[in-house]
User: Which sequence fits this backbone?
């Protein structure tokens, strides 16, 4: 990171990444909203920060959910999605569908 962003501070780089992620999230939300309106579907958009398994389990315990659907990503360095799924399998009482 230091070599790629040598002209800015670490805080500026983190703020830049956060801003990019926020903008992308808004674009994705707008696309979901548009698709839901055209199909007459309803959805709830919820964003959390923190430990993914803990946040997902907390949401599932506070809501009325029948099924959790998770996607997978290819194995790569730094990809922790497999650990999240393992934790979910061990702690969920809700049905889980994992899509490859």
Assistant:
């Amino acid at each position: 990171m230091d070599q790629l962003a040598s002209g800015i501070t670490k805080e500026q780089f983190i703020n830049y990444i956060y801003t990019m992620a926020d903008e992308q999230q808004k674009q994705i939300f707008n696309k979901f909203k548009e698709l839901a309106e055209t199909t007459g579907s309803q959805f709830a958009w919820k964003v959390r920060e923190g430990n993914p398994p803990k946040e997902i389990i907390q949401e599932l315990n506070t809501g009325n959910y029948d099924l959790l659907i998770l996607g997978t990503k290819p194995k790569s360095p730094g990809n922790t999605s497999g650990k999240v799924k393992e934790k979910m399998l061990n702690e969920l009482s809700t049905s889980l569908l994992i899509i490859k």
About this structure: Helices lie at 10-39, 52-62, 81-91. Residues 67 and 100 are 16 Å apart (CA to CA). Residues 10-39 form the longest helix (30 residues). The radius of gyration is 17 Å.
